[in-house]
UniProtKB/TrEMBL annotation:
GO cellular component terms, A-Z: endomembrane system
Domain Phospholipid/glycerol acyltransferase: 117-239
Family (UniProt): Belongs to the 1-acyl-sn-glycerol-3-phosphate acyltransferase family.
Protein name as annotated: 1-acylglycerol-3-phosphate O-acyltransferase
Catalytic activity of the protein: a 1-acyl-sn-glycero-3-phosphate + an acyl-CoA = a 1,2-diacyl-sn-glycero-3-phosphate + CoA
Pfam families in the cross-refs: Acyltransf_C, Acyltransferase
Positions of the UniProt region annotated as Disordered: 1-31
Enzyme class: transferase
PANTHER family: 1-ACYLGLYCEROL-3-PHOSPHATE ACYLTRANSFERASE-RELATED (PTHR10983), LYSOCARDIOLIPIN ACYLTRANSFERASE 1 (PTHR10983:SF16)
GO terms under biological process: CDP-diacylglycerol biosynthetic process
Keyword annotations from UniProtKB, A to Z: Acyltransferase, Membrane, Transferase, Transmembrane, Transmembrane helix
Organism name: Setaria italica (Foxtail millet)
Length: 398
């Protein structure tokens, strides 16, 4: 999911002071824990369980929530799909925090849970987006989180079904194409009754030393601040999302992510060898504090990333963000109860498929055909009974 806004470049030149820039700092020390055969087997087993539960639950339940329910109500279709998605997705924070013992430290503001949120974050590594799940889970909105992702990911078997029915936004990384795609997707989320947590990574790609040097060269040429720990943001994607959702948003969260003591990749997460700690700093931004013109939003976003750069610089010097401890640990009993429910449902689906009536096998085949069709043509059934906006209009009339 890196490069969510890779095509959406929009910088402005200015007269800002050019700071002296040292060599970019990458906290890529030795792995926090050794990769033992036990850890490797445990990680493979956990991912096998997570992926098998995903496949069976999608095949059995997605046609009900995204077809049958959607014919009567888009709102309740999304609600049911997000509820089930959230239950399954919470297996990942359980893996990270409870099984792998990765410490997730929240700081900044203790944000009040909101229904409709736009999140923008720095992009340290390929797995940053996974740790936003830990925040959304604590706020009770895990099933509503959505990402802008590379369209090539829509070619992955099974995963593409999930990305589509959860209404993620695939982009080509060419702004002349992506602008219409984002506008079209988000135009379907104008109903304020539909919760949405939309996550955007304005840097457009994950951080590397080579990319940082290139970003600094661009900054030097255009009179922009040279940043050491983040890349200059590309703002067109963020601006488009903000313009489409602004009238119905409850909040904008500015999230800064850092790791101790090494930047993890996906397999590090799976095996639990890294990271030792994930630090997530959150600031709430009032919509009234965000400018309205594109040029002013661009300047505002560059300033936010200058502040992120300073936050990360202080983090590497002190080992923590300011105002730590804004969120508690996950409840182990609740996590275990959720695991048992998901595994139990998967077991039932597996039994019905292998040992029950032939009609369940036919249902599985028909479900796979349905999911393949709607994903390939990028469509979802329309609401046929009533109007998707009818409830909202009636509510306003009252």
């Amino acid at each position: 999911m890196n490069g969510s806004n890779g095509s959406q470049e929009h910088h402005v030149s200015g007269e800002e002071e050019v700071h002296h820039v040292s060599r970019p700092i990458l906290n890529n020390g030795p792995k926090h824990r050794p990769l033992t055969p036990m850890r490797q087997c445990r990680g493979v087993a956990c991912v096998a369980v997570i992926l098998s539960t995903a496949f069976l639950l999608i095949v059995y339940l997605a046609p009900i929530t995204t077809f049958v329910v959607r014919l009567f109500s888009v709102h309740y279709s999304r609600k049911a799909t997000s509820f089930l998605f959230g239950m399954w997705l919470s297996l990942w924070p359980f893996l990270f925090e409870k099984i792998n013992k990765t410490k997730v430290v929240f700081s900044g503001e203790n944000v009040i849970p909101k229904r409709r949120v736009l999140i923008f974050a720095n992009h340290r590594t390929e797995v940053d987006w996974m740790y936003l799940w830990d925040l959304a889970l604590r706020k009770g909105h895990l099933g509503y989180i959505k990402y802008i992702l590379k369209s090539s990911l829509m070619k992955l078997p099974i995963f593409s079904w999930a990305f589509h029915i959860f209404e993620f936004i695939p982009v080509e990384r060419k702004w002349e194409i992506d602008e219409a795609i984002i506008q079209n997707k988000l135009s379907k989320f104008k109903n304020p009754r539909d919760p949405i947590w939309l996550a955007v990574f304005p840097e457009g790609t994950d951080y590397t030393e080579k990319k940082c040097i290139k970003s600094q060269e661009y900054a030097s040429e255009h009179g922009l601040p040279k940043l050491e720990h983040v890349l200059l943001p590309k703002t067109k994607g963020f601006i488009c999302c903000l313009q489409q959702l602004r009238s119905s948003l409850d909040a904008v969260y500015d999230v800064t992510i850092a790791y101790k003591h090494r930047l993890p990749d996906f397999l590090d997460n799976v095996y639990g060898v890294d990271p030792s700690e994930v630090h997530i700093h959150i600031r709430t931004i009032q919509l009234s504090d965000i400018p309205t013109s594109e040029d002013e939003i661009t300047e505002w976003m560059i300033e936010r990333f200058r502040q992120k750069d300073q936050l990360l610089s202080d983090f590497f010097a002190k080992g923590h963000f300011p105002d730590e401890g804004t969120e508690g640990d996950l409840s182990t009993p609740k996590c275990l109860a959720n695991v048992f429910v998901i595994v139990g449902l998967t077991g039932i689906c597996l039994y019905l498929t292998l040992f029950s009536s032939v009609w369940f096998k036919i249902y599985v085949v028909a479900s796979c055909a349905y999911l393949s069709f709607v994903t390939y043509y990028s469509v979802l059934p329309p609401q046929l009974v009533g109007s998707p906006e009818g409830g909202v209009k009636a509510k306003k009339a009252v």
